[in-house]
Specification:
Strand content: 25-35%
CATH superfamily of the largest domain: Alanine racemase
CATH architecture of the largest domain: Alpha-Beta Barrel
Bound molecules: pyridoxal-5'-phosphate
Distance between the termini: 19 Å
Length: about 350
């Protein structure tokens, strides 16, 4: 492999396209798929991901910030874009120039196309004031009604149903049939077709990551992103020799240690020392010692064929083994969303089909 690349995130655009098509297949006719490409497409590259999702059947895009909408427009994307986040005055101006739809929960938000957000229990953005929401929803620039679920990924809880019920009552009270009504994120899209309304807003599932933190394949999803690096050194360690800051790992027996040039500066988070595997030559090996900013060390064992230049897979498949972002997330006590969002600009994104 080319040593020009310390670490590489390869993004399979056809997987994104297929994931979007799969999500579409879960919807009844007339329900639109909005692909959420905020935070640079959850680390996958917003513009590339947006185009792939549109090719797969998404017809709307959503982002968090006005700058993200502007970036999509700059790259020639003409489809409807919904900016979901809170916007300063200046950001409202940027959103207007990008001809984006924006979310409103106070009369101060000014745009050509507004989606009124009722906070049915997420407790973050949106108004909790039913009357205020009704008043806003009667505005002539209102084109959509929305809410957001707090617990769609926690199957079996009652809160989701309560939020859904409150939103349904709101939609009925508004009583307009010219509005795009939307509530579901990826988890809600899988969980309950009653939550689909006119459009679903799917992010994580579009990238082939599982909204429930389980195996994406069980939900018909294909992970689009793989993360690789390479073996930059292989060295013999005698028992008692240590690797890395703080000497968190010491060889308990004579062994070989590989140095791999990826670290938390690349977004490969430090987390729990040694509690993560990587794949080399189709086999799992544990990290040895702390992750540093630019490198990790890997315990290859007392007898190894691994040599300098070998590919190292941190997320993805190699031979018959695979490491899912969900596995990495579990080991770091976080969620798959954070694993791909954390990948820093230092990791080159290679978009392939
Ligand atoms: C991020 C976001 C989504 C997408 O959520 P996923 O779980 O990634 O599908 C949908 N709606 C809102 C308001 C969001 O902020």
């Amino acid at each position: 492999m080319s040593a020009a690349e310390r670490a590489l995130a390869r993004i399979d655009l056809s997987a994104i396209e297929r994931n979007a098509a799969h999500l579409r297949s879960l919807l009844r006719d007339g329900t639109a798929l909005c692909a959420v490409v905020k935070a640079d497409g959850y680390g996958h590259g917003a513009v590339w991901s947006a185009k792939a999702a549109l090719a797969g059947g998404a017809s709307w895009l959503a982002v968090a910030t006005a700058g993200e909408a502007e970036d999509l427009r700059r790259h020639g994307i003409a489809e409807r874009i919904l900016v979901m986040g809170a916007l300063t005055r200046e950001e409202q101006r940027v959103a207007r120039e990008a001809e984006a739809d924006v979310v409103a929960w106070t009369p101060e938000v000014d745009a050509e196309r507004l989606h009124v957000k009722l906070d049915t229990g997420m407790g973050r953005l949106g108004t909790r004031d039913w009357k205020e929401a009704l008043r806003l929803a009667r505005g002539d620039r209102v084109v959509g009604l929305m809410t957001h679920f707090a617990t769609a990924d926690e199957r079996g809880d009652d809160y989701f149903a309560a939020q859904l019920e409150r939103f349904r009552e709101f939609v009925e009270a508004v009583g307009r049939d010219d509005l795009v009504v939307h509530a579901a994120n990826s988890a809600a899209t899988y969980r309950d077709s009653e939550a689909h309304f006119d459009m679903v807003r799917c992010g994580i599932a579009v990238y082939g990551l599982d909204p429930f933190g389980e195996d994406p394949a069980d939900r018909g999803l294909e992970p689009a992103l793989s993360l690789t690096s390479w073996v930059a050194a292989v060295r013999r360690f005698e028992a008692g020799a240590s690797a890395g800051y703080g000497r968190r790992w010491t060889a308990s027996r004579p062994t070989w240690v590989a140095t791999v040039p990826i670290g938390y500066g690349d977004g490969w988070r430090r987390g729990v020392a040694g509690d993560r595997d990587v794949l080399i030559r189709g086999r799992r090996y544990p990290l040895a010692g702390n992750v540093s900013m630019d490198n990790v060390t890997v315990d290859l064992g007392s007898d190894t064929e691994v040599s300098v230049g070998d590919e190292v897979v941190l997320i993805g498949e190699q031979a018959h083994e695979r490491i899912l972002a969900e596995e990495v997330a579990r080991r770091l006590a976080t969620i798959n969303y954070e694993v791909t969002c954390a990948l820093s600009p230092r990791v080159r994104r290679l978009h392939v089909r």
